[in-house]
Design a protein that fits this description.
By secondary structure, the chain is an all-alpha fold. It contains 2 helices and no strands.
């Protein structure tokens, strides 16, 4: 269960860490495989990595203050 009062920035940070860990686990697991199974595991790792990059971008955007309207 996710705490109902957790801040968006904290959720993004936790998500980023979880995706980074999942990426490492998928990469490590792929090392034990061969052939098409290895390719599948590496594809999964790449998808997780792309999701991590997207979350990192969101985390960067959340930290940037909005400019005041003119």
């Amino acid at each position: 269960m996710v705490a109902p009062d957790i801040k968006d920035e904290d959720l993004l940070a936790h998500t980023c860490e979880s995706l980074a860990q999942a990426s490492v686990m998928a990469s490590d697991f792929a090392g034990y495989l061969e052939g098409p199974h290895r390719h599948t595991a590496m594809a999964i790792q790449q998808i997780v990595m792309l999701a991590e990059l997207a979350v990192n971008r969101m985390l960067d955007n959340v930290g940037v203050p909005k400019p005041a309207p003119l």
